[in-house]
Design goal:
about 220 residues; BirA Bifunctional Protein, domain 2; 4 strands; globular; single chain; alpha+beta
């Protein structure tokens, strides 16, 4: 992936965010998209070495569209100024843990876990957390997650235990179960390995969530 060319294109798109400009520069976009698909293929192969569940994921199926859904937004710009993708055996919109990558000149980062699960999924997760509080506390204190990501993201965490839960692990207060970290600037030749290594550190979170998602609350 030529990061310089990608960032140049995305900066220009940010300041010329119209269909007319995009159509004029579509060949550049298609070239960069093809490079991104190839990068995702290399990342999937790397992740599959420690997470066999993603080995059959097709690179093109991980990419999010560059088109924005502006129907309910005051910002009517038609295109995003980032490239993004998510790897999961259940698809990029799966309830299963995701490996998420975003590239762009303003904000490049990696993330993982389960973001804003649907109510039934959240209920099952909380049922598992309630049943296994020590495992939940151990996850929150996991040294690798703390060292690399500063622990789980606490944005949107409840101040009190949710209704029906009087006490237990603080993980019960979470509504998302994710980690994230900025993607530091690295040479193109090292980009794949750096991203795969970041995803590798997420394994304690993903292993916990897969066990929790297999639980069905009564």
């Amino acid at each position: 992936m030529n990061q310089a060319q990608l960032n140049e294109f995305l900066v220009e798109l940010k300041f010329n965010n119209t269909k007319a400009w995009f159509d004029e520069h579509r060949p550049r976009y298609q070239m960069l998209r093809a490079e991104f698909v190839a990068l995702m293929g290399e990342i999937i192969a790397g992740v599959a070495e420690f997470d066999v569940s993603v080995k059959d994921v097709q690179p093109k199926d991980t990419l999010f569209r560059i088109n924005r859904d502006a129907r309910f937004s005051h910002d009517k710009a038609p295109y995003k100024s980032t490239f993004s993708a998510a790897i999961s055996p259940g698809g990029r919109h799966s309830d299963w843990p995701l490996y998420y990558l975003q590239l762009g000149p303003d904000e490049a980062f990696v993330a993982g876990g389960v973001y804003a699960p649907q109510p039934e999924t959240l209920r099952n997760l909380r049922g598992y957390i309630e049943k296994h509080p020590r495992k939940a506390d151990a996850l929150l204190k996991h040294p690798d997650l703390l060292r690399r990501f500063g622990g789980l993201d606490t944005a949107g965490t409840l101040k009190r235990f949710p209704r029906g839960y009087g006490e237990g692990s603080a993980l019960l207060k979470y509504k998302s179960f994710t980690v994230a970290a900025p993607l530091e600037a690295v040479p193109d030749a090292q980009l794949r390995d750096v991203i795969v290594a970041q995803f590798g550190v997420m394994q304690p979170l993903h292993a916990y969530l897969r066990g929790a998602l297999a639980y069905r609350a009564g």
